[in-house]
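Example 3.2
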Amino acid sequence: MLKNYIIFIFLLMFSSSLFSQGTFLTLEGTVKDNQGEPLIGASVSLTDVSVSSIVRGSVTDQNGRYLILAISPGTYNIKVSMIGYKTYESKNVRFIVGQKPTLNIVLIPEAVQLTGVTVVGARTSNFELKRQDVSTAVVAEQIENLPLNSRNIMNLAAVVPGVRTFTEIGGRGMPSAGSLPDLRFVNFYVDGAEWKNLFNGNIAGLGQTGSVLPQDGVQEFRFILSPFDAEFTRGGAYIINTITKKGSNLFKANAFMLYRDKDLNTRMPNEKIKSPYKRQQWGFNVSGPIMQDKLFFNASFESHNTKTIYTVSPGRPAYNPGIWDKYAKTYTAPTDNMIGTLRLTYVLNENQNLDYIWSTRTYDAIGFFGGINDISNAIHSVYHINSHMLKHTYILSPTTFNEVSLHYLRWIHDEPAYEDRPMYAYPSLLLGNSGFPIAIYENHYRLIEKFTTKISDFHTLKTGFEATYVTFEPWFPAGLNPRFNFLTDSSKVPYSATIGVGVYNPTNPNGIDARTNDKGYLLGFYVQDQWNVNERLTVNLGLRWDAEINTLNNTFKVAWADSADLRALLDPKFLNTGNRKNDWDNFAPRFSFTYDLNGDGQTIVRGGAGRSFDRIASYIGYFERRDASWRQYQFTFNNTNNLPTLDPDELRRRIASKTGGSAGAPSMNLLPDKLENPVIDQVSLGIANQFNDELGASVDFLYQNMDKIYVSRNANYLDKTINKRRLTSKYGDIQLWYDDAKAENMLIMTSVNYKTSSFNITGSYTFNAAKSTYDGSPSQNRPITSDFLYFRSNGEEKHRFVLSGYSKLPYGFKLSGIFTLASPRPFDVVDGRDLNKNNTTGDDYINGERNMLPDLNKIRNWYKMFDLRLSYLLDLKEYEKNIPQVEFMLDIFNVGNWVNISGYRGTKYDQAGNALTTFGLPTGYFLGRQVQLGIKVSY
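Structure, written as tokens:
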């Protein structure tokens, strides 16, 4: 079966062949005379400003149409000429990743005498109007000029309509969009290759922990909310498409350093004293020729060294509010992030280029604590990421282009617990951590083939094929350090416990029985036709197909497959015998269009509809396999045959003795014989208008419906009404995995941009309504009897206003800033008393609502942020051309020192019914005002 699919894909790929939106663009249009007649044989040339030897060209056909394929994002000079007509020239035309530029030219006969002022060039500011998806480009000027607190390029999404971004907490932060968890349903493309990991669906290296690429190594990127281009996949929440910088004939170099410490910060509301905060960031970027006109390089490196602030603020039970006061402290913990890129470009000839792109990252941090999580609950994170890409581009003819890439991605993820100790879980405080260590080793070996050809005057066809071989070795010995659960904050003994023990090596202290290794295959194919129906209407029709093969341990026979007891209690489809089916039917049709309303390129109606699929995180398949050799035993203590204990060795002894009710019961994860991939259907409609070269505006509507989202349910929960497991006492929790969770998201996004040669300002407003049947982690331990109904999503942010821009001032000064005002988001609330007696408080909603919304009428509850940069450029080149430029920077983050609440406590009572006085109060705050000093030297 697999063989037939692969043969079918290759036949399609090579039997037929638009450009790749991922890394290249296509310029097209018409050349006519001043009477509106098409000119046949006019010469159109495009010269790369950075490498003048790279000249691309085309000749108009019988309809006066031209097409130039495989244009790298950048700045170009355009020249159009024909005998008997005045030559047309347009200088410094900018092409941005993801655009679909059309440029229609009118040539004037030589004999015609022009009066008044002759304007050379055409309006190119409307290129962005013709995008057919809901996306926003973040270009080099924004990357270089806007104040970026962490230098994490992903946080530049702050200027993107439809996206939620916030100041980092504990060095962590990641953009969010829609009603899906941003840590599972995102994708990140670098130069055409995806960096999505297999284990949990996040970016390799976890984008929330820090920048995965150096800021100065990125040329530009596009933030995509609706991937109507068939090239993109697996981005249910959003996709970031990034292009790294290339070298050129011009040698350039810069180095920077940024510095902050506690004296430049204000104290947060939950800090008793100002934290000893400190951060140093430095780096460099160097680019230029190795061989003039032939071989170029661009190298970039950054080091981020931070003492990150964490504030532990335990809950305060009404009967003894100060019980945990000794743990209420503010800590700093080290974070080191080193990132680098190297890109080599070799011009084989005028039609062929060869690129080698290397990206690397090393991350070392202590964190993931604060709020009710004590420092003993922290983890020590160490990541290593390496990406190597070799890309060959070949213009086979003026109308045919091929791109083939080999990509290797290596992700090493190592996270031990900060303290090696048992975990004590109280209602208001968590001490220790039983959920770690975790180690993950992933290798992605990928082939990417993209082929483009113009098949007629009105149709440009592109196809692409991707094949990836993945090896993955996860190790997650949950319960290696046991977890003891306490009923109240004053309880002296636990009421339950969980501990992990190996099946084959039960006395091994390193949990080696939890280690597995496996391999899988990812296949993808797409075909797309750009149909220029006429000069005003362009339609894209595309189809994408994806399959992930054996990424859920499909051929593994679970240890309980032959259990007569479980076969009698469960649907047999959950007891895999090694024949789990792969999901082959992921066909995603896509349609988009642009329509020039008045025929002048100024007012564009655009829209689209399509389907895309996302990934089922492979960790759920790993859990199923791990549970066969690494068992998590659950104890519910009593005063008869299973006495409470805090001794891990005593728990292990009871397990080994297998004595009656004291032995504990192993839990398990079970997947059905087939899980469908998450599917996202979406439709958009928008209109954009370029009033003049300086002013443009747009409005877009986007609706997304998500289905087949993976989520677990506990089939064998402890029924506290009878103090027995629902199915059998032989086992603990039996987590059954389903693909029936759902979500919906609706966005209305408006944007206005005003730009001159020295001033650029953009304002946007987003309205959002979102709902879902679950929020957060798919592993929620909800009983199978729980209601999974639609509720307002925790990600719903009704209103967000963003104003960003930069302006050149006299005497070498420059001012830039980002202002954000966003309405509060809902937060989860539960009663906490386990009202329905199913051994979890997660479904004990208050007044039938899953979450609560802070009062919109109180500005205190809104997110308010104004980041400002003032810079001064010392440029002495008019006196001595070899003297480097020096830029001095003053960054002020949260200029108004506004209080911004990062989260709220949502548990009203402990399980004994004692009121928690902290219910509805903040768990933490985003940082107050911070000042940063910096210097940048450029040559």
